[in-house]
Design goal:
Blueprint: E1 5-6, H1 8-14, E2 20-24, E3 39-40, H2 61-70, E4 78-82, H3 90-99, E5 105-108, H4 111-117, E6 144-145, H5 147-156, E7 159-163, H6 167-171, E8 190-191, E9 198-199, E10 202-203, H7 206-214, E11 222-226, H8 233-241, E12 249-251, H9 254-265
Helix pairs in contact: 3-8
Length: about 270
């Protein structure tokens, strides 16, 4: 079974493995600061549904498959994904691959900052063409919650919705970063700011994560993870996946969709 997290030392020792593909999923990608051989995974422009007005919307299987093939990814590839914040966009990419049926995917714990802090070199990224891969996207829709799913769950309360935004945004006392979008919370949801599961740009230990989640009222309920636009929700999803088996779902539209659509339908 592929590890959810790998260390920078592990990556350095396995960097030239024939089946390993390293992806830089930084939101503010800097081609002058990349790990050797890393390929740019462009969440915003290539691996999102650009026809959807919501930010970072989950792509179709066709879009995802084509994008992965263009990056030279094969069905046999072990993917290691990182970002230049430490842990930020990389868990989103990890979840996307899992949702499209590719389990051989890991997140580089600590990302590029940890890589550089360990004394490992970075290089200028290249635009060299790679041989087209044979990656196949097989969507598991159970991993994605829709607006309608969240509406139904408010009534049934079969699942627990965990929001990764800051406590101020969740409580409605701090503004949303998107103009004209009110802050607040979805009914019956609970708050776990994504920063709570991280320390110095890495995930906290499994014992610490166990303590964090044990304090939440989630016993007996399957979790649905949410945030502002589906990015940081995946940070706490991966944290929970490190200590708990079973199904885990992301509300992809997250607060941006919920606040917008409820404003329109009220």
């Amino acid at each position: 079974m592929t590890k959810q997290l790998v260390s920078v030392d592990w990556l350095r020792n396995n960097l030239y493995n024939d089946h390993l593909i390293v992806l830089d999923a930084s939101a503010d990608y800097d081609e002058t600061q990349t790990i050797h051989g890393a390929r740019h995974f462009d969440i915003k422009n290539t691996f999102s549904d650009l026809n959807n007005p919501l930010p970072n919307s989950f792509p179709s299987p066709e879009i995802f498959e084509k994008g992965c093939q263009n990056l030279g990814i094969n069905t046999s590839s072990h993917i290691v994904v990182y970002d230049n914040k430490g842990i930020f966009t990389s868990p989103r990419v990890w979840w996307m691959f899992k949702t499209f049926g590719h389990d051989a995917v890991s997140v580089l714990d600590g990302g590029l900052p940890s890589w550089r802090a360990s004394g490992y070199s970075v290089i200028q990224g290249t635009n060299e063409s790679v041989e087209r891969g044979n990656f196949k996207a097989q969507l598991d829709p159970r991993r994605i919650a829709t607006f309608e799913n969240i509406q139904a769950n408010i009534r049934s309360q079969d699942s627990i919705l965990i929001d990764a935004r800051s406590s101020g945004r969740f409580r409605g006392t701090a503004p949303e970063p998107r103009p004209q979008l009110k802050s607040g919370q979805i009914k019956n949801s609970i708050n776990l700011p994504y920063t709570e599961v991280l320390e110095d740009g890495k995930y906290k230990s499994n014992a610490q994560l166990q303590d964090i989640f044990s304090e939440l009222p989630i016993a007996g309920k399957s979790p649905i993870f949410s945030c502002g636009s589906g990015i940081t929700a995946c940070i706490i999803l991966l944290a929970y996946d490190l200590i708990s088996e079973g199904s885990k779902t992301v509300y992809d539209g997250s607060w941006t969709e919920w606040a917008t659509r409820n404003h329109l339908v009220q």
